[in-house]
Amino acid sequence: MRYRLGVDEMEPDHWVAWVLDLPACFSSAQTQGGAVARAPERIAEYYAWLSAHDAASPVPAGPIETEVVGVCRAFPCSQDPDYLVNAFFEDDRRPLGYWDVGVALRLLSWTRQDLLRTVETLSQERLVQPVAGEVRGSIAGILRHVAGAENWYLGHLDVGLDRSQVPDDPFEALRVVRAQTRAQLVRLIGHERVVSRRDELWSARKIVRRTLWHECDHTRHIAGLLAE
User: Fold this and answer.
1) In which residue ranges of the chain is CATH 1.20.120.450 found?
2) What does the pLDDT look like over 23-41, one tens digit per residue?
3) pTM (2 decimals)?
4) pLDDT of 51-108, one tens digit each?
5) N or C: which end of the chain has fewer CB within 10 A?
6) In whole angstroms, what is the distance from residue 95 CA to residue 100 CA?
7) What is the CATH number of domain 1-87?
8) 178, 108 in Cβ contact below 8 A?
9) Are 46 and 19 in contact (CB under 8 A)?
């Protein structure tokens, strides 16, 4: 089966190949070629991940092939050079249908299960313990960042929570923001709006793409820190 890839230079030496036909499936590498080359392996792992959460999930038939349908390079925002503008693919313009939102909600429940399982045995002391070199300070800081970024994504379509509504406790923040995400995705079915914020285009489909990726990416990030 052939899968479409949207390739995105998110920041210098950080390329992501988004598998546009499989929400929450992506590969990353320091180069464009590396991200594309890793995509088939990540697709196979993705199907294994689906099966681990639901044995009735489909499995790919035949060899896994990929096709690059879009390449975007990050560039500095004209109003804020410190902000890098990331990819908006043609596929991001497609409105979310009922099936798309149903799939997204199920995947979001699984990515959240994975995140919470990664930290479920940690004491409060370990959660807030400073981590050397970690820009967000601690694992608790990373969890707050996951919630904050998800709410920030929603805010691009004016459906996020006011920052005062997001609790400081990381687990409560994750819960409150995710409840907002679930409610707003249902309301965004059929939504065709594309908006520009700081030179970057956003749509409902892009919000889903980025939210799933961000939670998966930081779950791996935390697992790596704990393994060290």
Assistant:
1) 93-228
2) 999 999 999 999 999 999 9
3) 0.95
4) 999 988 878 778 999 999 999 999 999 999 999 999 999 999 999 999 999 999 999 9
5) C
6) 9
7) 3.30.2390
8) yes
9) yes
